[in-house]
Amino acid sequence: MSQSACLTSDLSSFSPEPGTTMSPSLITLLGVGLWLSQWIRAQEGTLPRPTLQAEPGRLIPHKKSVTLRCRGFPGAEMYRLRREESSQHIDVPTSGREAEFPISSVTPDTTGKYRCLYKNQSHWSEPSEPLDLVMTGWYDKPSLSALPSPEVFSGENVTLRCQSQQWYEKYVLDKEGGANPSYIQVTSPFADFHIIEVTAAHGGSYRCYSLHSDTLYEWSAPSDPLELRVRDASRQDYTGGNLIRLGLAGLVLLILGVLLVEAWHSQRGHLEAAQKPLPRQSNQA
């Protein structure tokens, strides 16, 4: 087992019990331990992999700005940003834990798959996980609708249809706050995204995009948002049972009402017959 692995394992024993508060000295000790483990790995030539993020996000409207932030080792001497579609790279000398790479205007020439890495002494880290920088607003926005309805009960099926005025080879469905968008490859003016057995987790705001297969990082403008509302099926059953019971109760009341009216008319007829004077009999001499 390496020294860094042992140190990380030992530090885990300092974790506080649930519900307790970590003291400042313990927080400092954990921070120093993390830094020390990374320093040991740097001496061994295995630097931790950096992370690459885009702010305000990876979907940027045409000609708007974005900042790519690479976060790595505190003792890094240089950060490098690479675009896989190009042989060029950008180096930023720094002694900090992160470096910023601003892009003032996103165009087709700046979109693509990016990675970053950093240098410590004579060692370069492994590249970060790829980040896809996408430009939106390159084509007219499509429309997004829910079939049969944007309000469904849990357990039901729903289809989200992305409709364009032109034919495209790819369509993308993106959920606000979702991890990864969904792709459909189909040459058509529309694409159907089927959600089978909807759960509460499927609820939220959706948008869709259209694009061509030869320009994967140039998307249309986003559709207007569609709010998918998922209702609890158990409440539906409960409401249905109540409606059935109310309907039966109403039917019973209606029958009782009819019987009461008939009884009243029958009683009234008997009373009128009893009160009617008998015909007089003629006296015969």
Automatic annotation (TrEMBL):
Location within or outside the cell: Cell membrane
UniProt-annotated stretches for the region Disordered: 84-104
Coiled-coil parts of chain: none
Biological processes per GO annotation: immune response-regulating signaling pathway
Keywords, comma-separated and alphabetical: Cell membrane, Disulfide bond, Glycoprotein, Immunoglobulin domain, Membrane, Repeat, Signal, Transmembrane, Transmembrane helix
Membrane topology reported for the UniProt record: Single-pass membrane protein
Keyword match Glycoprotein: yes
GO cellular component terms given for this protein: plasma membrane
Location of the Immunoglobulin domain: 55-136, 147-231
Transmembrane residue ranges: 243-261
Residue ranges occupied by any Immunoglobulin subtype domain in the UniProt entry: 61-123, 153-215
The protein's name: Ig-like domain-containing protein
Species, as recorded: Vombatus ursinus
Biological classification of the source: Eukaryota, Metazoa, Chordata, Craniata, Vertebrata
